[in-house]
Amino acid sequence: MKEFRILEIKQSVFADNDRQAGELRRELRERGVFLLNLMSSPGAGKTTTLMRTIEALKATLRIGVMEADIDSDVDARTIAGSGARVIQLHTGGMCHLDAAMTRQGLEGLGAGDKESSRKAGPSLPQDIDLAILENVGNLVCPAEFDTGASKNAMILSVPEGDDKPLKYPLMFSVCDVVLINKIDVLPYFDFDLEKCREYIRMRNPGARVIPVCARTGEGMKEWTDWLLEQVKDWREG
Amino acid sequence: MKEFRILEIKQSVFADNDRQAGELRRELRERGVFLLNLMSSPGAGKTTTLMRTIEALKATLRIGVMEADIDSDVDARTIAGSGARVIQLHTGGMCHLDAAMTRQGLEGLGAGDKESSRKAGPSLPQDIDLAILENVGNLVCPAEFDTGASKNAMILSVPEGDDKPLKYPLMFSVCDVVLINKIDVLPYFDFDLEKCREYIRMRNPGARVIPVCARTGEGMKEWTDWLLEQVKDWREG
Questions:
Q1: ipTM value for the complex
Q2: Is the Cβ–Cβ distance between A43 and A137 less than 8 Å?
Q3: Which of B77, B158, B188 sits opposite A3 (nearest CB)?
Q4: For residue B12, which residues of chain A lie inside 8 Å, CB to CB?
Q5: B11 part of contact set with chain A, CB < 8 Å
Q6: CB B94 within 8 A of CB B29
Q7: Which of A132, A183, B110, B161 is the most buried (most CB within 10 A)?
Q8: Residues of chain B where predicted confidence (pLDDT) is lower than 50
């Protein structure tokens, strides 16, 4: 006898945005722009990770950051202090970014305040090596939309629990790399790092898993080395 | 001079489900069923909070739980051990539940395995005092859809940060009560409880705020007393 019933609720169909994402990726490659799509739950540490990443790579790469948020500009204010170019994207309540929205963000990042580019109409940036999209804090919807990114990264933080790959399967299967953040608080939570690695492997055998602590900097070099290598491969590919 | 630009991305329109939610709420009141919609980020502690809640109230109320999850049945397995009636709702990738989906869940909870009710067609339960919907772990989409609930509750956990009411305004403004969970790890995080209370008040002056630790049980009595009072008011109203 089963302990409970399982009811399958019907899913509505999302508009296909794969074509637009493919087109954006192609144009970005022509311009030598690597686009990283960074996803996580609310409060997993995306902004702190970005601050460390910019600090480590800003001497090597020209970095632009798009901060997607429903309403506030808390994160863009933080990133603005890092020296990277930053734009705040207000999604007006939307729970994810698709390729068309990402393109708007990139064009905004490219335009700056220059009168000339305003006259010529919107275009993708030419003077950025690494564009980073900090997606809306959400483990569900962002995973469903290809943004046109060169690579997808996600952050899972220790306090969220090691079972998240079981509960949010799509997010883990679309990611090229998973940062397991806040490992400094491992002693205070029931989080089994090996079990988590195994769950991630079940969803996505090819995903790189890197334990980090963005606050203290632990593990960040492995992450930024990996990212730098991806950017170089992209520009050479 | 501003530090960065703000770009307003257009929002698509969600289908209105207010009428269905109002109708469901009316039918539930007729049957004496109080429906609690419990929301939070992934890993904020919804299931642990539910286990404590059931433990405290199961002698007084007949409780039924709907566990909404994209794919797994991890949480329903846990809740099944509590003695409460439980049903797993698979959303098939959907990021929230609306009133029609919640009705399906309630009907499933009511039907049990009884052959008779299967013949009579689906109907809302008559023998439950408190139905709890554990919504999908997500601070964005669930806030946009009235499920027909009598009251909305949300859990914000300390590791997520005290700035969440600034970033996810709608979630905090639709909630009747906010549980601030995992207060046992306050010493290890930069989380200002008073600042967080103030941010919540900005969004929603009427929301009750209760600091708790579901793992140790701290603060849970204030929460279950509040909930019991709401259920009684609902049945008398």
A1: 0.86
A2: yes
A3: B77
A4: 94
A5: yes
A6: no
A7: A132
A8: 1-2, 9-14, 113
